[in-house]
Amino acid sequence: MxxxxxxxxSNLADPQQQLRGALxxxxxxxxxxxxxxxxxxxxxxxxxxxxPRYVNAVAVLETGLAPLALLDALQHIELAQGRERKTERWGxxxxxxxxxxxxxxxxxxxxxxxxxxxxQARAFVLxxxxxxAPTELVLADGRRLVDLLAACPFNGLERLHDKSVxxxxxxxxRR
Length: 175
Fold this sequence. Notes:
Blueprint: E1 2-10, H1 15-27, E2 32-37, E3 41-43, E4 54-63, H2 67-80, E5 96-102, E6 107-108, E7 113-114, H3 123-132, H4 145-150, E8 157-159, E9 173-174
Parallel strand pairs: 2-9
Antiparallel strand pairs: 1-4, 1-5, 2-4, 3-4, 3-8, 6-7
């Protein structure tokens, strides 16, 4: 089993409910255990400014799935929750699930890059990740999470106080 950090985001169709549904689906993946979930954060959208704010979180999944099999499963969850893949990047979406870190692996495949590209510039990923990751987490490429946080201000983020996110998913640790 490998420890995988997954970024979750939504800004359409009741984003908090979208994340709850995604967490439930993650908890039901074969060969996997949903181990922890961060708080929810509201963030300004990347790309077009004429879209709603996002709701984001990070989850820890302990899984025996191979990286591309997990990616396929995550994309299936996105589609099941109404995700439409468009050519426009960073547009509004019902659900976005990204593999941020996959154990100690560095992955550079056409469909998957781990650690996730631009991770270091995304406060809406780094701050929820820091809630549930070990204090001295070192990414597979040698970067330390604490250094990435120091270089990425909290600006534009709002920590939401929704205790019901993990309530819909049983046996999940919330830190």
